[in-house]
From TrEMBL:
PANTHER family on file: MALONYL-COA-ACYL CARRIER PROTEIN TRANSACYLASE, MITOCHONDRIAL
Protein name from the UniProt record: Malonyl CoA-acyl carrier protein transacylase
Pfam families according to UniProt: Acyl_transf_1
Root EC class: transferase
ATP-binding among keywords: no
Family as reported in the entry's similarity comment: Belongs to the fabD family.
Taxonomic lineage of the native organism: Bacteria, Pseudomonadati, Bacteroidota, Flavobacteriia, Flavobacteriales
Amino acid sequence: MKALVFPGQGSQFVGMGKELYDSRKDIKDLMESANEILGFDILSIMFNGADEDLKKTEVTQPSIFIHSVAALKAVNGLGAEMVAGHSLGEFSALVANGVLSFDDGLKLVSERAKAMQDACNANPSSMAAILGLEDARVEEICAQINGIVVPANYNCPGQLVISGETAAVEEACAKLKEAGAKRALLLPVNGAFHSPLMQPAQERLAAAIEKTKFRKATIPVYQNITTTAVTNPEEIKQNLIAQLTGPVKWTQSVQNMIKDGATNFIEVGPGKTLQGLIKKIDNSVDVASAI
């Protein structure tokens, strides 16, 4: 069975989407409509902007979504039987399975990005990648720290990102190194994504989601928060909202997709990050880029 997977924040690069834009008129029209929806020229930042501008959350997230949906259009869905997205990528996955339109998806992604950025500005916080330690040990140590620090991204076995208040994250990193982690690296982000500190952003996203039309899925989406196949639009809504303060269970999602028959994973969007993670989760499956 074929599964489409969609990347999240961090996969952006200057020049992203230009080849897609130049390849076909229908893709060009789709991408140009993003400028109108967002009210600024995001394509010029994607194609020719400064790296620092592209890294701003309110630009990064819509850019990756636009690129991913354009790539999906270029390959016409590839006849997939299931979809999943890593964090932000879940919105692209919901366009792929018919739950969201491009326009509605982009509006939600833009609101999500702005809300997350505002939450970051209001409460200085950070994230760190923990390498070479079992998930259960990371969870145990985070639970012992005073202050907010939680597992945020279960990326693959031996790679878990933690998120929370800066002092708590730093203390956790020190204790995790003592416990045998090969590395504990503070990430170049200015906020604690997928932690309780995103609560204000979650409330804003929930309000936007409730005003948006969600259709029944044509194929299942394996959502970050539940890790299992979902098609019901009301369930999908609630899981999207919960995702902002809950962990991205990518390892568990991929394992469940394989258990349910996925043998071929195709990454749709910028970069190859997810292909690398999937091979570390189970190297028996095939991985490839859509374009």
